[in-house]
Amino acid sequence: MEDAPEGKRVLFPAEPEIPRYLYAGQLTGEGNFRRDREEPGLSRVWQVITGVLAGEAVPVVLQRPQAGAVDERGRVFVTDVSRGAVFVFDQAAGELLVWDRADGLKQFQSPIGVAAGPAGSAFVADAELGLVAWLDARGNPQRAIGRGVLTRPTGVAYDAAAQRLYVSDTYGHDIKVFDAEWRLERTIGSRGDTAGRMNFPTHLALRDGELYVSDTMNARILVFDAESGDLVREIGTRGLNVGNLVRPKGVAVDSEGNVYVVESYYDHLLVFNRRGEFLMPIGGVGQETGRFFLPAGVWTDAQNRIYLADMFNGRVMVFQFLGGDTEAQE
Description:
single chain, mainly beta, about 45% strand
């Protein structure tokens, strides 16, 4: 990942306040990897990674990143709706891969949500194809899930312990739950604006047995018990002040229980504590470090790094949670 501008540490909030987050870099594409020397057998692979057009290498870069996930190997999956593919940033292998096949030879049309699956696989929700593509660790399509059941899938979350797949069906206004055989097991929610109902849900997150749903057009985050489907609590209120929600999209939770919500309308990443109380914002519209232009998804990894798909800036910005008693910020 790239360093902060001019090598300076960028902290949020800025000093003299106690910093809680450090800008850790950004993912943009092949520029995140260096090729220090020529090695036998690598030339053709590098051409596949970078692409070749009219005899000239075409740089592979993110165009309109939507969402992402990090698998057990530390590989970062990023969906790109403009490119119609999943970018795989593999730091350990020092390579960038681009997976563009969703089902057999059929290519992705509108990949939105992605979740890490078993054995290095990935689940990718394609809104236009109306399915979730299950790809193996090499990006080969294994199964099309939800065909004929899903109308416009966007968010996806996988529970490895229970072997369940949760999919937000935006036009169905509900969450569809698939079992270990990829059969529809049940649905959570229905259309409406009262408690537990949804209006165009989009992104999902799963943590400690709770399912977080961006209830986008109701301007709130719904938290369900993933096993029972019962509503546990709501996060956020509609409003025009910083900390309010208008068009929430990405949602994620770190190991400390901090909840991250992308407020796409005002280009902010909002941080809430585990009780849903607002703590602080990061962002605002712009191209500078720590600012965003129509952000979409957000996700975390095992090191409590926070990744944000800065869609119209064509990048993923990465922040490191520095720890601290976030409950004390009330």
